[in-house]
Specification:
By secondary structure, the protein is mostly helical. It is built from 4 helices and 2 strands; from the N terminus they run H-H-H-E-E-H. The protein has a two-stranded antiparallel sheet. The chain is elongated and about 55 Å long.
Length: 174
C-alpha cells in the first residue's frame, strides 16, 4: 500500500523547502549586515511561514488519513524508532518556525508574509529574550537537520539494504 498523492506531494514539497531553508539559513547568517542580508532574512521568514502552513495542512491530512502499514516482519525496535522519529519530525516542523517567529517578535522585527500580510507579533520587544530565542532557533535547527538526516538514512537503508518497499510507498510515479 502507498501514501496518497496529497501526502506524497506535501511530503516532498516540505522536504524540498526544508533542505532549501537549511542551506539558505546557514548561508545568510554568515553574511555581513547589509540591505541584502535583511532582504534574505525576509525571504527566509516568508519561506518559514509557508512551510509552517504546509505542515499544518500535512498534519490535518495525516490525522484524517492513516498511513500505510509498516512492512511485515519489521523488528519492534524499528517500528518504535520510526514512530518516534516521525513524531519528532512533526514536532520540529512546528516548533522551529514558531521559534523563529517568536525570535523575530522579541527582536522587534515583524514578520510580513511575502511583504504583504503582516503577521502579529507573538511577543513584546525584548532584546535579551530575542537573543535567547535566536540561540534556541539555531540549536533547534541543528537538531532538526540531524533528525532529518537520520530519517533519510533510515529510508535509504530500507530501500537498498532491507529492500522492503518502505521508501517506494512515498515515491511519486511508481
Amino acid at each position: 500500500m502507498r501514501y496518497t498523492r496529497t501526502a506524497m506531494s506535501l511530503h516532498w514539497l516540505i522536504a524540498l523547502m526544508l533542505f532549501g531553508m537549511f542551506g539558505f539559513g546557514l548561508y545568510m547568517v554568515e553574511l555581513p549586515l547589509s540591505p541584502q542580508k535583511l532582504k534574505f532574512y525576509s525571504y527566509h521568514k516568508w519561506a518559514g511561514v509557508t512551510v509552517f502552513l504546509l505542515v499544518l495542512a500535512r498534519l490535518a491530512w495525516r490525522i484524517t488519513h492513516r498511513p500505510p502499514a509498516l512492512p511485515p516482519g519489521m523488528p519492534a525496535w524499528q517500528v518504535k524508532a520510526a514512530k518516534a522519529g516521525h513524531h519528532l519530525l512533526y514536532l520540529l516542523m512546528v516548533i522551529v518556525p514558531l521559534s523563529g517567529w517568536l525570535m523575530s517578535s522579541a527582536k522587534g522585527f515583524q514578520t510580513v508574509w511575502f511583504g504583504v500580510l503582516p503577521l502579529p507579533d507573538l511577543l513584546a520587544k525584548d532584546e535579551a529574550l530575542g537573543e535567547a530565542l535566536l540561540l534556541t532557533h539555531r540549536l533547534l535547527n541543528w537538531f532538526f537537520m540531524l533528525v532529518v538526516a537520520g530519517h533519510v538514512v533510515a529510508a535509504l537503508k530500507h530501500h537498498f539494504i532491507d529492500r522492503d518497499g518502505l521508501l517506494s510507498r512515498m515515491l511519486p510515479g511508481r
